[in-house]
Specification:
Its EC number is 3.4.11.2. The protein is an alpha+beta fold. Among the domains are: 193 residues, Sandwich (Immunoglobulin-like); 132 residues, Neutral Protease, domain 2; 92 residues, Immunoglobulin-like (Sandwich), CATH 2.60.40. Helices cover 40% and strands 21% of the residues. It contains 26 helices and 33 strands. The strands form 8 sheets. An 8-stranded mixed sheet has the order 6-5-9-3-2-12-15-14, with no helix packed on it. Strands 17-18-19-21-20 form a 5-stranded mixed sheet, with helices on one face. Helix 25 runs antiparallel to helix 26. The chain is globular and about 85 Å long.
Length: 879
Amino acid sequence: MPEAKPQTIYLKNYHEPEYLIETVDLNFILEAEYARVVSRLTITHNPDNKARNAALVLLGEELTLISIALNGVTLTTSQYKLNDESLTIADVPQNTTFTLAIENTINPKANSALEGLFVSNDMLCTQCEAQGFRKITYFLDRPDVMARFTTTLIADKTLYPVLLSNGNKVAQGELIDNRHWVTWEDPFKKPCYLFALVAGQLECIEDHFTTMSGRDITLKIFVEAHDIDKCAHAMQSLKNSMRWDEVTYGREYDLDLYMIVAVGHFNMGAMENKGLNVFNTKFVLARPDTATDMDYEHIEGVIGHEYFHNWTGNRITCRDWFQLSLKEGFTVFRDQEFTADQTSKAVKRIDDVNALRTRQFAEDAGPLAHPIRPEAYIEINNFYTLTVYEKGAEVVRMIRTLLGTENFHKGADLYFQRHDGQAVTCEHFVQAMEDASNKDLSQFRRWYSQAGTPVVKVEQTYDAAKQSLTLTLSQSIPGQKNAAVLHIPVKVALFSEDGTIMDASVVDTVAINNELTLELREQTQDFIFENVPGTPILSILRGFSAPVKLQMSQPLTELAFLLRHDNDSFNRWEAGQKLTASIIFELIDTIKQGKSLSIPEILIDSFKAILEQTSPDLSYLACLLSLPAENYLAEQMPVVDVEAIHHARQFVKRSLAAHLTEQISALYLQNHQQETGELNSAAIGKRRIKNLCLDYLSQLNTDDSHQLAHNQFANAKTMTDQIAALGSIVNSENPEKQACLQQFYQQWQDEALVIDKWFSIQASSTQPDTFTVVQSLLRHSAFDLKNPNRVRSLVGAFSQANPVHYHAKNGQGYQFLADQVIALNSLNPQVASRMVSALTQWRRFDKQRQDLMKQQLERIINTDNISKDVFEIASKSLA
């Protein structure tokens, strides 16, 4: 247990800072073993805070204080109080600006938590969001204190030839003893969480971008020398992002220089520090032979996300950390739309909803459920969650749905105009949307403070005499006491039997292309469709217009009909998912009864029709042919039956492969072409559909299917094809499995990101020996518990992407995870706390598994010196 119970921070207790910092002059003397930091702060009393004579409390952790001077006078130890978390000066000037100079040292080499200033492969770099700056120097470390920073870096030229910080380089020079210095100045006020520093032996590629007003922006991407040939895609992605933000939102970049640095040890995906983005290498480095098509898409999406933060996060930032979704939800929405415009809108929407429903819905249904604007936290790093990010993006999407695209962009313009340079709240964002559109969003605001996933129940009654359809919608939020009645946009269309959309109407609802957006604002609400000539087939929640679960009875014949005829790409796919899931759940019941299994002809016929159709979007075709994920199926069961889900789903997969071998093989061969590594949508689509077909055929475990996978592996020209073939081999009884794994490792052992894939593919295998393999991989020379990417690739993949083995009845998976969490706790609490999430859903399982998971959570909590990051997640899970 922690020595003292960690303090809970509450939104209701927010108060304006007593003091503001106007300017910050930072001096870093960077050595191989330590860094000396000299800060000079210009401080003034905050006029918005009415308190007077308050002590100045600066936050600082893991710092060695050398000296403090107030207005040039050195303070004695009796004039301040120092503890492990803060520096307090009781007596500071009240009616005038004053200066405070602080000198301290830090040890970046010992910083395995990767917060503040740390070392990655001999490179010095920073991560200050959310509260890392206090590990660099004493400061008012809160997002509503915004200051102008000037930073000077001094270092040995051989150790650290490249010295970077935020803003513009304004001066540089040489010193004695092979040392040099560089000064950077950021002209924009920013909170300290956006501060960045990088120093190391780096090379860069350079390009330029001309803005819509004609300004020339220099673009630089810095990497270690051996990665310089993997930066071209990231650079093009940056330019694509800049152009898209200009065209779509009218937002132009504001500095003359934009820099990205790729770092091998990083807790997150990337960080939007003003003018100097620090990225996990995973989201920068790519060549066709080392990165998959999905990697390329993710790189472009994350590059875009961090760039878009320049306006939605940097120019306008959060008043406090409870408002995190203000910047993250809006920016995720922006990066999703950007990726959709760059790739396939249909596939992107499906991918985003899949992630939301398999992971965020689980978060909403468990003990860690929280609103997108939480009310309290112990450790803010634990609130960088799918709820804040992904559900936050859906809330923004709903606003656009309710307002319409034109009014939504008027609202965005007003938001940027009103609040540029400010630290604001979610309320400011919604208010701008209201004022620009004259749309009342007062009830909609409840989405910001309501936890849980709403369930919308749908009932329909058709009156042939009146030619009317009554649609009764009701809403509830299971597991949430006194749940608020939300404002939910529900997009609907009615189909006739010939596959055309009916021209029906609802009072006070405008139809666009015969699609209506119903606004559910009551617990139960009737919507009457008039001029409905016959019993319709309902397509509801089109485009996934709200992050809700639907309860609606639909026969398999209707789902098969929508799978063939629905013109909404999301709902067409969704019909196929529901059709397949219904059959899988029927098979689960059959398994429990001990009867023999078979799949109905309606599923075979539906898949056969899809396989035989010509599609201009092969990536979307692959989505239509993909089965629901095991985690998604588990979300729909009151008590998760891990083995039955896996058994039933695998049976469906094998049966479809057996019944449709001819069609699947033909589609594979049709798209198995000589690869050149092109990244256009046609080439990506061919690879995606081909590799899905290979996955199906591998289920047959025949000599032919084994040979097909081995041939693709041996002759692959792209990582997309090679890793797909290896996955098929590892997840089958292919006799070449060990030889291929060894060959892959030997080929790519010097490429860290590729070896991450090698770990993951084994950790997520469903073969019987997987747990033994995972245990052995922990001892592999390439595994490093201090590297977050490596931890995620092995421990994360096993616990989060391999339910059938992680949830083994004997509890060995749970003990394995707890062992790693405890080991990580002292090294990197952030990564440790994220790993705990795989134990938090224990209530969803049978009694035996519940007891085993609780036992490991209690073991974690009772570990000596448990971090507050891990304590918060584990204790809330058990509460």
